[in-house]
Amino acid sequence: MEQKQRRTCKRRAFAAAFPHTIPVLTGFLVLGIAYGVLMQQKGCGRKRRIACRR
Prior knowledge:
The chain is 74% helix and 0% strand. By secondary structure, it is an all-alpha fold. The chain has one domain. The radius of gyration is 20 Å and the shape is elongated. The termini are far apart. The relative contact order is 0.07.
């Protein structure tokens, strides 16, 4: 019974916290896409990923 209560408590906490993480997630997604476009323009494609890490 106590384990079920803990699971319910964790689920409620996650459900309460998740909407607050959406703006952060969106910001990182936009930054990642912008960085990917920039690197693609600089000539660092998916195949040359290791060589472009400087």
